[in-house]
Amino acid sequence: MRDPAPSSQAASTLFDPAGIWAYPIDAWQRSVLFWDVLRKRANTMLEHEEAGMPPVLTFQYEMLLDARRFERPANYALLRITTADTEHADACVDDSKPPVIIMDPRAGHGPGIGGFKRESEIGMALHEGFPVYFVSFFPAPSPHQRLIDVLHAMHHFVDEVIARHPGKKPVLYGNCQAGWAAMLVAIHCRAPVGPIVLNGSPLSYWAGESGANPMRLAGGLLGGSWLTHFVGDLGDGRFDGAWLVQNFETLKPEAAIWDKYASLYLDVDHEEKRFLEFERWWNAWYSFSRQEMVEIVDHLFIGNELEQGTLELGDAVRIDLRSLKSPLVIFASYGDNITPPHQALAWLKAVYKTTDALKEAGQRIVFMTDPRVGHLGIFVSASVARLEHRAILESLDDVVNLPPGLYEMKISNPTNDPDCRKPQYSVSFEERRVEDLAFDNPRKAFERVRQLSQANETLYSNFVSPWVQAMTTPWSAEVLRWLHPMRTSRYMLSEKFSPWMHVIARLADEVRAKRLPAAMDNPMRAAERTLSEQMQAAIEMARETRDSAQERAFRGLYDY
Q1: What is residue 85's predicted lDDT score, i.e. its pLDDT?
Q2: Is residue 120 within 8 Å of residue 114, measured between CB atoms?
Q3: Fold (CATH) for 60-206+316-441
């Protein structure tokens, strides 16, 4: 006898009295659990803040250097990874392998994304036998901290690692913003470094795809860097990283604002742990100094000076990417709308012009692209860590031994199993031409943005900033920090601020003890999922309309 058709099963569930009541009970229970998870997130956020917001690493570590105590202080620290769970890191180390220095992005969030779970960049490096060091940072910048101070701190860190591993060139592993920081260190470090791995790291800030990468247009639409300076003034010399994280969320609201919470509600029984683990990192917002943030926006995002070879950080330090001799591995994704492959790779053509020029410089550059994974997935995804990052680490010797040139790294994995080992998967390096790197880069339009930004920044610095600074106090800055909508939307769900959340906590305990989930084939559950998908599609359509309008405005303003 054949099973009833799915439609018959749905109909029987719908008209079955038990089935009718199963959904509203389940929906009510999931609602209670959903709000309880948000309560836990708020408490975790506040507890993390009270603890001084340490790195969210799942690995134990020892602090070797604290750059806040350097002659030129910076809010950075060098950590040595000592233990993974109960296993001591030294037991995993292969003495023949060079040390790996993993640098996390300082882009609003705190440190730890490179190692907040076992299946991560740190975990894979330990698994492959590399001694692992981690560049961390503290929530507050040192007073008047500048990029040159950070660079000096990084120099000390690299020197310390080299001293601990004589004769071995350390591998620099930079995530997102830390990628260009790794490049700066490699160019001006007193001792040579080994291969540099850049994961989702922007180096060509004007490049992008029309209709797909709106973030590059923000500087022009906001009139340049003066607004960054203004926010830093309101923060009494500090720029709150919550503003950057808010930008990330509004960049793709259908995912960050809708789908994240919808997925939690629809499957709260299984999503709670993953949600809270990620949110612990996502909701720890660190600050920049005003000078440092204005330098980043002025020189990199608006000025694009790193690609053009005009970046000067002070102390007669000038960055020229052509002077870099360390082999490069660049990992980017077409699913990354924050640092698309355009921004990760377009600088090659601007710096080297031709493949022959790249070869004459003696440089070896390897790039690898993924068609789908998002920006955070490059660093966070367990499957990416187990395959792509493991393959990169296992292939570093091959990269070093390549003849000068440009190569695309290809991973062949017929099993589709990220845990497979060689020879189940293989890595190849296919030679490519610099001339074939064609990315949209409207230089004239962005040059106009740069000029406007300089003019507005000059006006603001001379005529407005002194008044804002005179009216700002540490107290007013702290009030604004705690009243930031990114914070209030989180911590107000803690019982420490909203006593009625005690009721949610008690109800959640009762619900977990008497949980009655509806079957996944319940027609009302299916309707829920359909409604969520429709809502996500509607938000995506609205976002695309917004992005299109912004691009039209940019084109009209700057003749692009």
Answers
A1: 72
A2: yes
A3: Rossmann fold (3.40.50)
